[in-house]
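Reproducibility note. Readers wishing to regenerate the assembly model reported in the main text can use the exact inputs given here. Chain order matters: entities are listed in the order in which they were concatenated for prediction.
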Amino acid sequence: MLIYNREYTRTPTMVSVTDLRTMYEQMVTARHYEERLVDEYLVGKQPAFDISAGPIPGELHLAAGHEASGAGVCIHLRDDDTVTAPHRPHHIAIAKGVDLERMTAEIFGRKTGLSRGKGGHMHLFDPDVNFACSGIIAQGCPPAVGAAMAAKKRNTDAVAVAFLGEGAIDQGGFLESLNLAAVRDFPVVFVVEDNDWAISMPKDRVTDVQNGAQRADGFDMPGVRVDSDDAMAVYEAADEAVMRARDGNGPTLIEVQVHRRMGHFMGDAEGYRPEADIDRAKQRDSIERLAEDLRSHGVTDDDIEEIRERAHERVEAAISWAKEQPEPEPAEAYENVFTNPPAQAATDGGAAADVPGDDGETGGDN
Amino acid sequence: MATESRDYTEATETDRELTMSRAMVEAIAWEMRENEEVFYMGEDVADYGGIFSSTTGLLDEFGRDRVMDVPISETAYLGAAVGAAQAGMRPIAELMFVDFFGVAMDQIYNNMAKNTYMSGGSVSVPMVLTTAVGGTYNDAAQHSQTLYGTFAHLPGMKVVVPSTAYDAKGLMHSAIRDDDPVVYMFHKRLMGLGWMPSPSGPKTGVPEEDYAIPFGEADVKRPGDDVTVVTLGLHVHRAMEAAEQLDDDGIDAEVIDLRTLVPLDTETVLDSVRKTGKLLVVDEDYQSFGVTGEIVARAAEGALDDLSAVKRLAIPDVPIPYARSLEDEVNPGTDDIAAAVRELHE
Amino acid sequence: MTDAVDVNSADSWPDDADDVAEGYLANWFVREGSAVDEGETLCEIQVEKVSIDVAAPTTGTVAERLVGEGDDFARGDVLARVQPSA
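Running the prediction on these inputs yields the following structure tokens for the assembly.
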């Protein structure tokens, strides 16, 4: 169900079977990807959980249960549209068309990963499809506004989408982004993924509104809450928002109810979360729901199975490829600080930004 | 992997040992019992007990009013802590990762740190800003920093960096009792978390009763005659391991744990440098314009005639990379410290 | 003199970990010979991702520590023995 904050005259959206199939495939890919990453992540970390052990060390925030949001929004986007995502990005990256092999290699910290092993899973950058994600809450919003600003200055009809969690709507950077986008009519869509939990803090303890789309009211911006993680409902809400932006009519705020099927990060025992809440999350499966929608649009079970198999194969291929990739050489740690490194390049243990003294030369030739 | 812990200080002859996180919490709980106006606020500090176990058990004893979960609104809640402190309360506000200071720095360095001065001393800000620092567990550029230099550099806030359970409790008592703002920076890998094994040093004997360690007193964790190693936080333990290796080769390293950056105990460093003439500073913050440069500068100012060799080891001026091989390269290890001491000793 | 009391790991097992047979000893807080009060935390174990404090069953002295810090153990293994004070 879509809850709008104002009255509109809307032309109902017709979703094509092709789009339904595409969304389904992306969602299945995303779900299988996260489930496989659980296995890979836990290698070396059992029985004693040591966060820095194994092929995928560090934190890992998986998006099982969020798939409808990524798929339902990104299906309306082109490669030249910009997407920024938070620390739980994989389903969005997949739906946006990020290079899955290089993304996986990055998560495994390999030299041929998207960021040469320097970024890891929270800092995936794919300029070919204008995707980036970041680890600081709500801080993907201002850059998305900036991409929208650039599109407007250049008179293209490209748009930007910033994804964030429901906890992030309490962060200053988000609120400032809403205002800046609204006052300038920038072509940006804000998509809040509401999974009810900011790590261990339930929404009602920290946010004063139940419906996050109401944040739009304070900024004279259209807001819509998709009350269920139903891919077709997300599709409809996003279709309108993206169209509004492309037509030059400014930003929209969408909130989508999703469900966190796993912990906040891998290793989170979720002791703070009532069993009933976890069970409820597992029962509502947006992927099953979309399969039902596919069937009611005439797609056969064999077709559906074929899509699933293709998705699974793709995930397996990406993981296999990633695991064969070489690790970065230690000396690479000093590279890529600057696009134009100063003449005196960084050396072992040295300061990467050393510049020659008296001759005052800076930013030498590469 | 944790093994038998070692006692560094003579005051730790007790029957029980605590991890650094439990020692910190013990001090906080004691102060909260003593004074109703002490309270803790932060993200996930209530039911979760703090992401790095900074408040485990406090919710059960003190309730949600005094152990407050706050929205993800650092500017608002850190600024609110400043306001409550100026009203006379004694808040402890937690910045979940020090790397998040960016979204709230105005409240920290322009209000918390400066209001006392800007008011000519007529207001004080008796709050503690606790925050988790440090890397070595592959959390990449935005979640692995220590930023010791950033906070020590800006005037108006005291900066505390415990490296053991004994120090953590004593420094926390002092921090809460201090009428000035104190930034209490605890290293994630020293907390004794089951999911992030700590080296063997941080778990020490901890007296049951309250005790305060004064600020501005460095601790000579290991006396030695050949080379002075000045360090803090995690690298105290790496330096201690290096010192053991060097001992086998007949090199006697003196390891000084700074414990507080503001105020800084220059005298202890100078005494050591006058004795050994050789100074190595080890820091987990970026090399340029930071802690290592400051210590070397003070040694040069105070003991230039005695100084014959100087070296510094720190994170180079690069964002902290994710991949294990890269992070290991940029964060000084035990072997790096031992090698640097050997170079100085030659 | 009464017998030393076993501190059995099974007594501290988390409720929803019935199917888990292994634990890990994350931290010891007392040594052999340490005096302890009943209820005082002796050690911290980890079962799956849950952290549990194991309490002294009686006031007395830690007679023996049977599982080392950093070691795995099976559910039902005795972690330590405490000699009750007279």
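We highlight two features of this model. Residues 2-328 of chain A form a domain with the Rossmann fold fold (CATH 3.40.50.970). Residues 17-42 of chain A form the longest helix (26 residues).
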